[in-house]
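Dear support,

Our group has been running a series of protein-ligand predictions, and this particular one with guanosine-5'-diphosphate is the one our PI (initials K.S.) wants archived with full inputs and outputs. We had some confusion internally about which version of the output was final, so please treat the block below as the authoritative record. The input we submitted was:
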Amino acid sequence: MIIREAKFVMSNSRVEQCPPPTLPEYAFIGRSNVGKSSLINMLTGQNGLAKTSSLPGKTQLINHFLINDQWFLVDLPGYGYAKVSKESRAQWGKMINYYLRKRENLACVFVLIDSRHAPLAPDLEFIEMLGTEGIPFVLVFTKADKMSGSRAHQNVTSYLAKLQETWDELPRHFVTSAAEKTGRDEILNFIEDVNR
Ligand code: GDP
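Confirmed final output from the archive:
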């Protein structure tokens, strides 16, 4: 897919205020600092479209972008911020759960995982919730350039092995590097296929 246009539409905290659900929607989520903004900017080819997080935890809103007038890309607030209060964490949970369950045009959730890390409880819990709720999702392993190719491959394989302890069927996954611009075509082609 060629990205001809990517524009910011709105930020809000309520599903009811999201744009009318007339186009398929793809949401991106992950732990703070996982590389979500960098990935979104790489996918859209627009540096600065999603704000890279100099202040973790700052954006607790659902951010909609319109791509090629054909689909929505949604930047969801991340989880796992160390400095966030219990109260805002609970608020985050409510907003995200509501969004994931109610957003009728949600085609797929991209769950971002730092490819250097061993499986972490918040990610596993989130994946578990998506699976249990039947919400379509795929995994995106980020920052693959930070390791040698074989090390990245090893990490991804052991991550998937961990998931296999719980799930019979593994989710589709992508390995990306925003720094080296890898994984872009694979993700965009996947979205194009789902949109068909
Ligand atoms: P966010 O908090 O998930 O939106 O993460 P950011 O996109 O702001 O990235 C967090 C940090 O990781 C920044 O310092 C980025 O420059 C860095 N980063 C993000 N993606 C990559 C990548 O693919 N490779 C490398 N080497 N660094 C990355």
